[in-house]
Amino acid sequence: FVLAAWLAACSTWKVTSQPSEQLLQQEKPPTHVRVKRSDRSSTELYNPWIAHDTLFGYAAELVPGAGLSRPPKIAIPVDDVRTVELRKTDVAGTIMFLAAVAGVAAIVAGALAEEEEPPPPDPVSCPLVYSFDGRDWRLDSGTFAGAILPGLARTDTDNLEFARTVQGRLRLKLANELAETDYVDAISVLAVDHAPGLRVAPDHSGRLHSYATLIGPASARDYRGRDALPRVVAADGWNWESAPALRDTSRAADLVDGLELVFPRPVGAGTAKLLVDGSDTPWAPYLMKTYMALHGQQLSAWHDSMRADPVRTQRLGAKMAMESFLRVGVWTGDDWLPQGFIWGVGPESPKRQVLALDLSQVEGDSVRVRLESIPSLWLIDQVAIDFSGDPPFEVRELYAEAAIDTFGHDVRAPLSAIDGEHYVLEPGDFAELVFRVPPAQEGTARSYLVRTTGWYRVHAPEIGEPDVAMLASLEGQPGSIARFSVTMMNEGLRALARHAPR
After folding, report:
1. 238 partner at 20 to 30 Å CA-CA among 34, 210, 312, 409?
2. pLDDT tier at 19 (50, 70, 90 boundaries)?
């Protein structure tokens, strides 16, 4: 099959000193910028332009065959713009490539020579949730990532960082911008009232945890010995990612990558909460789509067989989790003690997840934590720890008072309960939901989270004979997903090296 990969994690943001007007009036204006505002918030814009005293752009990239039919348009007063950052390729430190066996390598060489982003392949990931912040639609969540079969449907909970109420209403937009069909069983908003200064975040089961003071790591190094502390000490968008390098698929050590972090430990602390802000790289959904394409013309039959065999479905889900989720362990002095997983969350939006740590077998005044997964699969923005208990908070679950889809239809009924009745979104579909929000209790602060339940079916070519041997290996052989991923990454790196400008 043709190898094609595009890693957004492989580019960096670069601040430009040019005024916005001059920047956008160039012969080749940028197609992707990040705008920092006066209130220190940031917004990514695609295809930006300036009209009069306003900077306009789209919240979603205009990719033929994908994206909203009318992506949300964002308007920002020029006076509110403090800096504009450009998306730039970092050829030396990261990968951004298209590699193929028939002619695509020339595109790679040309794109790298001009330091431009090549167009991404048809993407897949998970349904997206936008929040209305009072002015604009802001991407706030990619939900139930990895739920690629009905038997893997799950409920996912995610913080809404940008949601703001307007006249007692909160607005969300549920969108399918990718090459998939989304089956959403339910969606609700959690309104959480808590003490000022407190925050809440979910674990993988959707249980909420509160925290006030986070303790950052004293040190953080990755598996190649690089100092990762500056990248993971704060949630600032400067992520740690795997170093792009050829790896030996016969060596177990080359099939994993990750971080080892050291945190100070209060005397007598027997438990802790680990908080990780991160996301998948675009390599993760590309890997998933490639796996689907291996089924060839038998893909639909495979879906039917998995629907009829829940045991096999769960076995596949467990294998995907073991190899591709972020595994967490703590050092006891003799060995790494497994603690659980940070679940995959898709590449579109970072997510904060909490994992309870058992420190009863850990000695000393520090805690060593290990995070590991398949190389090039994760972007990690911040890792922190909290040794307090869960200060109290109150949760109210809210359901939409209105839900109107792309065609003006009322879709509130299928989204109001987990009952197997799904709202189905094809590529380009979206629904806007309105929630009536009760006032926060006196003397408390308010946080919002979105809770969704469902699954999605990845669109992949149903062409040719299935690769039976590879599929059997990927479903059954331990470490096969990691080996498959590293093999593909090696092919891409070699293609990049062959055609890089000299």
Report:
1. 210
2. low
